[in-house]
UniProtKB/TrEMBL annotation:
Signal peptide: 1-37
Domain named Transglycosylase SLT: residues: 60-125
Pfam families tied to this protein: SLT (PF01464)
UniProt xrefs under Gene3D superfamilies: 1.10.530.10
Keywords (A to Z) from UniProt: Signal
Record keyword Signal present: yes
Entry keyword annotation includes Signal: yes
SUPFAM superfamilies documented for this protein: Lysozyme-like (SSF53955)
Descriptive protein name: Transglycosylase SLT domain-containing protein
Length: 137
Protein backbone atom coordinates (compact mmCIF):
# COMPACT_ATOMS: atom_id res chain seq x y z
CA UNK A 1 0.00 0.00 0.00
CA UNK A 2 1.27 3.41 -0.78
CA UNK A 3 1.57 6.16 1.81
CA UNK A 4 -0.65 8.50 -0.19
CA UNK A 5 -3.45 5.88 -0.19
CA UNK A 6 -3.17 5.50 3.57
CA UNK A 7 -3.28 9.29 3.98
CA UNK A 8 -6.47 9.49 1.89
CA UNK A 9 -8.09 6.90 4.14
CA UNK A 10 -6.71 8.38 7.39
CA UNK A 11 -7.63 12.01 6.66
CA UNK A 12 -11.39 11.44 6.43
CA UNK A 13 -11.25 9.36 9.61
CA UNK A 14 -9.40 12.15 11.41
CA UNK A 15 -11.89 14.69 10.13
CA UNK A 16 -14.79 12.49 11.18
CA UNK A 17 -13.25 11.89 14.59
CA UNK A 18 -12.62 15.62 15.06
CA UNK A 19 -16.20 16.38 14.04
CA UNK A 20 -17.54 13.76 16.46
CA UNK A 21 -15.44 15.18 19.29
CA UNK A 22 -16.55 18.72 18.44
CA UNK A 23 -20.20 17.67 18.34
CA UNK A 24 -19.90 15.83 21.62
CA UNK A 25 -18.17 18.79 23.21
CA UNK A 26 -20.82 21.19 21.91
CA UNK A 27 -23.53 18.84 23.09
CA UNK A 28 -21.98 18.68 26.53
CA UNK A 29 -21.68 22.45 26.64
CA UNK A 30 -25.29 22.91 25.56
CA UNK A 31 -26.59 20.38 28.04
CA UNK A 32 -24.59 21.99 30.83
CA UNK A 33 -26.12 25.42 30.18
CA UNK A 34 -29.08 26.33 32.38
CA UNK A 35 -32.48 26.21 30.73
CA UNK A 36 -34.05 29.58 30.08
CA UNK A 37 -37.74 29.99 30.82
CA UNK A 38 -39.86 31.15 27.94
CA UNK A 39 -41.31 34.61 28.39
CA UNK A 40 -44.76 34.57 29.90
CA UNK A 41 -47.60 35.11 27.48
CA UNK A 42 -50.27 37.72 28.07
CA UNK A 43 -52.82 35.02 28.83
CA UNK A 44 -50.59 33.34 31.41
CA UNK A 45 -49.87 36.69 33.09
CA UNK A 46 -53.63 37.37 33.19
CA UNK A 47 -54.27 33.93 34.71
CA UNK A 48 -51.68 34.63 37.41
CA UNK A 49 -53.30 38.00 38.17
CA UNK A 50 -56.76 36.44 38.33
CA UNK A 51 -55.51 33.99 40.98
CA UNK A 52 -53.82 36.80 42.93
CA UNK A 53 -56.84 39.14 42.70
CA UNK A 54 -59.96 37.06 43.40
CA UNK A 55 -62.34 40.05 43.62
CA UNK A 56 -63.80 40.54 40.11
CA UNK A 57 -64.08 44.34 40.31
CA UNK A 58 -60.49 44.71 41.55
CA UNK A 59 -59.19 42.29 38.90
CA UNK A 60 -61.07 44.10 36.12
CA UNK A 61 -59.65 47.47 37.19
CA UNK A 62 -56.13 46.02 37.49
CA UNK A 63 -56.54 44.37 34.09
CA UNK A 64 -57.63 47.62 32.43
CA UNK A 65 -54.59 49.45 33.78
CA UNK A 66 -52.18 46.71 32.73
CA UNK A 67 -53.81 46.43 29.29
CA UNK A 68 -53.27 50.16 28.71
CA UNK A 69 -49.80 50.30 30.25
CA UNK A 70 -48.13 47.20 28.80
CA UNK A 71 -50.63 45.08 26.90
CA UNK A 72 -49.87 42.37 29.49
CA UNK A 73 -46.27 42.13 28.28
CA UNK A 74 -44.00 41.58 31.32
CA UNK A 75 -40.96 42.87 29.42
CA UNK A 76 -42.65 45.98 27.99
CA UNK A 77 -40.30 48.95 28.18
CA UNK A 78 -41.13 52.60 27.60
CA UNK A 79 -38.21 53.81 25.51
CA UNK A 80 -38.56 57.43 26.58
CA UNK A 81 -39.08 57.03 30.33
CA UNK A 82 -37.61 53.61 31.08
CA UNK A 83 -40.83 52.42 32.75
CA UNK A 84 -40.87 48.63 32.69
CA UNK A 85 -43.06 45.59 33.03
CA UNK A 86 -46.75 44.86 33.29
CA UNK A 87 -47.45 47.88 35.50
CA UNK A 88 -44.76 50.14 33.97
CA UNK A 89 -42.87 50.79 37.20
CA UNK A 90 -40.62 53.85 37.15
CA UNK A 91 -37.85 53.37 37.96
CA UNK A 92 -38.21 49.74 37.03
CA UNK A 93 -35.88 48.62 39.80
CA UNK A 94 -38.53 49.53 42.39
CA UNK A 95 -40.10 46.16 41.65
CA UNK A 96 -37.07 44.45 43.21
CA UNK A 97 -38.79 45.03 46.56
CA UNK A 98 -41.31 42.34 45.52
CA UNK A 99 -38.67 39.82 44.39
CA UNK A 100 -35.30 39.41 42.76
CA UNK A 101 -36.95 37.99 39.63
CA UNK A 102 -38.90 41.19 38.93
CA UNK A 103 -37.52 41.54 35.39
CA UNK A 104 -39.00 38.26 34.18
CA UNK A 105 -41.65 37.02 36.61
CA UNK A 106 -45.19 38.33 36.02
CA UNK A 107 -46.27 37.21 39.52
CA UNK A 108 -43.60 39.41 41.09
CA UNK A 109 -44.61 42.36 38.91
CA UNK A 110 -48.30 41.81 39.74
CA UNK A 111 -47.53 41.64 43.47
CA UNK A 112 -45.57 44.88 43.28
CA UNK A 113 -48.28 46.55 41.16
CA UNK A 114 -51.03 45.55 43.58
CA UNK A 115 -49.01 46.79 46.55
CA UNK A 116 -48.40 50.07 44.73
CA UNK A 117 -52.06 50.56 43.77
CA UNK A 118 -53.26 49.70 47.27
CA UNK A 119 -50.76 51.95 49.04
CA UNK A 120 -51.05 54.94 46.69
CA UNK A 121 -54.74 54.83 45.70
CA UNK A 122 -56.39 52.43 48.13
CA UNK A 123 -57.24 49.76 45.55
CA UNK A 124 -56.95 48.88 41.86
CA UNK A 125 -60.49 50.25 41.33
CA UNK A 126 -59.43 53.64 42.72
CA UNK A 127 -56.18 53.49 40.70
CA UNK A 128 -58.27 52.85 37.56
CA UNK A 129 -60.49 55.86 38.37
CA UNK A 130 -57.36 58.00 38.66
CA UNK A 131 -56.00 56.52 35.40
CA UNK A 132 -59.23 57.35 33.58
CA UNK A 133 -59.09 60.95 34.77
CA UNK A 134 -55.39 61.46 34.06
CA UNK A 135 -54.23 58.87 31.50
CA UNK A 136 -51.61 57.59 33.94
CA UNK A 137 -51.46 56.36 37.51
Amino acid sequence: MSVSFIRRIASPKKALTAAAVAAATAGMALSAAPAQAAPASASSAQAIAKKMIPDAAQFNAFSKIVSHESGWNPTATNSSSGAYGLVQALPASKMASAGADWKTNPATQIKWGLDYMNSRYGSPVKAWSFWQANGWY
